[in-house]
Amino acid sequence: VHTRPSELPLSPSLPVRSDQCQLPRNQGSCSKELQHFYYDPEEKKCISFVYHGCEGNSNNFPTRELCEKACGKISKGTEEACCIEVPAVVRLESQQTPPRGPLETFSRPPFRLGTHLPLIQPLLHWQLFPLSPKAIQKYSFSVRLTFLLSCTPSFPTEVCKLPADPGRCLAYSEQYYYNWNTKKCETFVYGMCNGNGNRFATKLECQMVCGEFGKEQA
Q: BPTI/Kunitz inhibitor domain location, by residue (predicted)?
């Protein structure tokens, strides 16, 4: 009896790439009920999930120990600081006196060039900031866009190809995502936790970030 490649167990001896640990949880197919672990880059820890035994992706480990050994140290010491001068941007938008204070510091994962699969967790992802999702909304679109343009050498096109992901929570927030099939920015309901980076607060933001990628592939 030959085992299909999709059913082969993941080998803990294989080297693990850091972008592998950024992949979303995937329960796979088939009908088995196996307790496995995956690395959650937002929580920065290994979390258990039910794996159905076939397919899935490589962010999948049979034990917590193997998951932590492979991915647990990736998030430590790899974040870089990126600063943008928020008052300078605010001054362009309003005649009001800009707030005083130090530069705002935003934290982002390093962008790895030369890999076939860029980091799936996007660089434009408000949950990566040291601010709550609600707090980041006080900043204008141009401030958020300035962060994107100033702090990322390029935006991975794979992010714009991701499907709309409502996340695991049940809140209601209308957001935009780029539909790679229709080449349009469309609305979806976001539950306010988890999800992926193909998510934008405004349609214009979505178009400016992902629209050019779609035109190149049209």
A: 21-71, 160-210
Q: Which residues pair with 176 in a beta bridge?
A: 187, 200
**CATH number of the domain that 65 lies in?**
4.10.410.10
Residue 209 falls inside a structural domain: no
Cβ–Cβ contacts within 10 Å for residue 190, how many?
23
Q: Which domain holds residue 46?
A: 16-81
pLDDT digits (tens, 9 = 90+) for 161-195: 889 999 888 888 899 999 999 999 999 999 888 88
Rounded CA separation 23/59 (Å): 6
- Report how far residue 128's alpha carbon sits from residue 106's, in angstroms, rounded to the nearest whole number: 8
Question: Looking at the domain assignment, is residue 184 inside a domain?
Answer: no
Residue 133 · residue 126 · CB < 8 Å = yes
Give yes or no for a contact between 133 and 127, defined as CB atoms under 8 angstroms apart: yes
Residues with Cβ within 8 Å of 178's Cβ and at least 6 positions away in sequence, in order, are 160, 184, 185, 186, 198, 200, 206, 209, 210, 211, 213, 214
For residue 65, how many C-alpha atoms fall within 13 Å in the half-sphere facing its CB?
0
- pLDDT digit string, tens, across residues 18-48: 567 888 899 988 888 899 999 988 888 899 9
Token match 């082969």: residue? 8
Dist CA 54 CA 52 (whole Å) = 6
Residue 46 lies in a domain: yes
Number of folded domains that form the chain: 1
DSSP code for 64: H
Q: How many helices (H) and strands (E) does the chain have?
A: 6, 6
